[in-house]
Amino acid sequence: MRPKTAIVKPVGAIVATALLVGACGGGGDSGGSSIAGEPEEGVLRIVADDTNDFDADSYQVAAGDIRVEYVHSGFQNHTLVIEGLEGQLRLEVENGGQDFGTVTLQPGRYIIYCDVAGHRDGGMEARLLVE
Ligand SMILES: [Cu+2]
């Protein structure tokens, strides 16, 4: 029985570490869908749908060069821009498509929205925390 006990201890430590890492990385991602996956450093993934909404009310990404991935789960035309930085990034999707772009962001709080007429007023905006 003694060897068994000696093996169990290190395994327990590894599991505890994995749980801690998972807790730190999981902030804000309550979706749990396979599309969202693990948050990747420097990548901001946003999903739009036909209810004129993004898949979250707020997003978070590390400052610097950010690859923005805009994914559509519906059919309507949607765009993605950052308030005040409309000239730097404008992604557009429709019919379940995807669009990608890169933008450099300093730490701060931003608002992202869809600039298709009426969509932002209909709630198609979200917060973006860059830190
Ligand atoms: Cu839209």
Blueprint of the fold:
Layout: H1 2-25, E1 43-49, E2 53-54, E3 58-61, E4 64-72, E5 78-82, E6 90-93, E7 98-105, E8 108-113, E9 125-130
Parallel strand pairs: 1-4, 3-9
Antiparallel strand pairs: 1-2, 4-7, 5-6, 5-8, 8-9
Bound molecules: copper (II) ion.
Descriptive overview:
Mean pLDDT is 80; it is low at 5-37. The protein is an alpha+beta fold and 131 residues long. It has one helix at residues 2-25; strands at 43-49, 53-54, 58-61, 64-72, 78-82, 90-93, 98-105, 108-113, 125-130. Helices cover 18% and strands 39% of the residues. The N and C termini lie far apart (50 Å). A hairpin with a 7-residue loop joins strand 5 (78-82) and strand 6 (90-93). The chain is built from one helix and nine strands. It has a five-stranded mixed beta sheet, with no helix packed on it. The chain has a four-stranded mixed beta sheet with strand order 2-1-4-7, with no helix packed on it. It has one domain: Immunoglobulin-like (Sandwich). Copper (II) ion (CU) binds next to loops.
- At CATH level 3, the topology is Immunoglobulin-like
Uncertain stretches of 5 or more adjacent residues: 5-37
Tell me the total number of β-strands.
9
User: If helices are DSSP runs of H or I spanning 4 or more residues, what is the number of helices?
Assistant: 1
Q: What series of H and E elements makes up the topology?
A: HEEEEEEEEE
